[in-house]
Predict the 3D structure of the following.
Amino acid sequence: MRYQCVYCDHSSEAPDSDPPKRCPSCMRANAMQPVRERAPVVRPKRSPVAAMGIAAVVLLAAVGGYFVWGRRPAAGDPASVHPLSAGALHDALTEAQVDAGELEALLASDPGIEKFAEAAAGSASSAFDKADGVMRALRARASALAFVPWSLGEPRTTPVVGAKQTLATLSKDKGRAQLYPLEVAALATAALRAVDVPAQVAELIAVDGERAPLDPSGYLGYFVVAVYPAEAGLGTPRLFDVYGGRALAPGAKHNVLSDPSTIGVALSLRALHEVSYLADPKSALTSSSHAILLAGKLPSVRTVRGMVVLAGRQVEQGLQEFAAASQLRSDAPRLHNLASAALMTGDVERATKELSSALERAPDFAAAHATLGSLALVRGELDVARAELGKAEQLAPDLSLVQWALAELQLRGGDRDQALTTARRAVQARPSFDAKLRMGVLLRQAARYDELRELAAELLKMAPAYRQAEVREMIGTVLGPAALDADARDPEAETEPSRAPNLGGDEPQLDPALEPLGATTLPQPGSEREPKLRLRGSGDNLQLKLGR
């Protein structure tokens, strides 16, 4: 009798008395199903309408044969919630016209992962027991400080990687790696599949009793592992929070992802890296477009899309993406990003309203406290600003947004040297293109021209070849002629470093509230008809305006 694998479609012959227990191609257990041969039937002629109807039924049967076997979508269906073989995943991505590059192997196993999984699962036989073993093994790596929790409030400085590279990272005791929850969940999923456990990556939306968002940024996402008792997609899965180590109730709000959707999330994280650290909005737009094709219903993916199009000077479209993300899920991170967007357009009233709503839902939301502190500075309410920023620093001391807001407060108080020290700490933690450009504004105001020229060189080095002329023009506009030419005069720069700039009233500075959006929103050449952010004023009077 002929048998066919329901995962990878491999077929082979085997005697009826000894049916195959595993697919010889993908090695999945219980995957081979018998294929019944039917004798040919002579069919009478039918009308064209009837023929179309029969063709539709035949097509449905061909595509939906897998429903008969496993009551699940076909392997190539991007919405299917079950493990896909490498070939089926590649076909699904190809059909969606997505080139994921190395991220196509995000969930792929290898001999190292198999060895790790077998050791972690031990002699366990049930899916849940094996998952408990893998969970304990990965949490042991957390106890060894191979990876550590971090703010999850802004993109990491290094790009997202697949399960194989994540396992290599976890081999180093006290490495203190800052991993994305997606990377940890992808590794755990790959390991469980290696020991025949039907596991999927799932987005964890909320946990009862938490006072801070799981995903403070609103664009990184928080992901766990969903393990089914027998067959992926059937029944109620048990959730394992491998990244955070918390026990999750059966009713925890979640969203199980298909494998193509999981790749979409990884592509979204890649877009973040490209726009933040490679200063390459063109590549980021491609990655984000592919992410939208695979996982466009996830709020985090839509938020990244907004950040990317903002970097490409499409302000209105960027703000529409933030609104779309909020419509998909109106939680504290989305409200905070809406507040940041409102500040970009000068709508302080709406920003205040959105921030208040965000903090009502998540009282320990560090980024929202930091942005509220910045708003208080603009209004000249220094005591309120100190209180909000103090709380933000207590909650998330490593969040660069908090450090930028503190630097602004220090400038407001006249301590420029301390403000520069704080700003340098923020840049060191998250050396994005925007952060370095913002640091350059402070260096120009303080007449630190040697540092300014070094930083300008770094900005040019970060930018891809197609942006060199654009970035050079931006540096000259924002950082002044002295940033590019040691002999140039900069009459608009600060000549009295001891005098602190006025951050409120008629002289607002570059707003640190832009930082949580992570996009390069400073002025760039573009269509005059397209709304964009412009820098107006000079020296201490630099400010961002939305105009045409």
